[in-house]
Every structure is written in structure tokens, then in C-alpha cells.
Amino acid sequence: MSPRALDIKPSTRAAKDNPNAPKDPKKRWIEDTETESEAAPEAPVEKEPNKKLSLEIPESVHHAHKVGSASRKHTMVSEVIEMMAARNGLIPWPEDVVNQIVAQLEAEAAAADKARTARNRAKDPA
Predict the structure, then answer these.
(1) pLDDT digits over 41-58, tens only?
(2) How many domains is the chain built from?
(3) Is the residue at 17 inside a domain?
């Protein structure tokens, strides 16, 4: 028996009689608005077209990004888009990234101060 012979499509009559049958999206929208309160439906937001981007990155970076994205309950793609948008000034940087950078800058400044103090002590032994 060929795979095509197994394709069974419900008849139109069965789909009409079955309340769980998939509905036409346009008709479902009309039915949903009829059952809701008097609130007007919101206008659909037009989505910007997408472009494809293929990246070759080191396996360690991919793994770290995958683990980090999952721990933040985000997709890898959404985080890449967010970072690209922030890097190019389209949106503000995420707060967790700002906090990480501030902590890194503070640590570097503290290390530089410590090194400067050690050099000064070495030059001027009291």
C-alpha cells in the first residue's frame, strides 16, 4: 500500500459537524470577536521581514551561548537578535549585560589600583 493511500481527509460534512475540527482562521477570528465583550479587536501589528544570517563560531562559544540562553529561558536566536540590536543602537542594552560590564570594569579598576599601589611601594620602600 502506498503512503498516498493512507492519506485520509475528513469529509466537509464531518468537519462541519465536529466542534473540535480545525476552523478557518478568518471565521475563527469572527466567532471569537462575537463571543467576546464589546471590546474592539486590536489592529494586527505588521511584522518586519526577516533576513537569514549564517554564522561559524567556535564550539565553546556555541555551547556557552546555548547554556546561557537556556538558563535565562530565552532562545539562542532571540538573544543574538537582542545583542545585535543593542550593539547597533536600536534598543537599550539588557540590564544583566550592563551589570556584568559594570562589575568587570570595577574589577579591572581595582586590579589596576592594586598594581599601582604595589609599584609605588616597590619604588619607595619606607
Answers:
(1) 677 778 889 999 999 999
(2) 2
(3) no
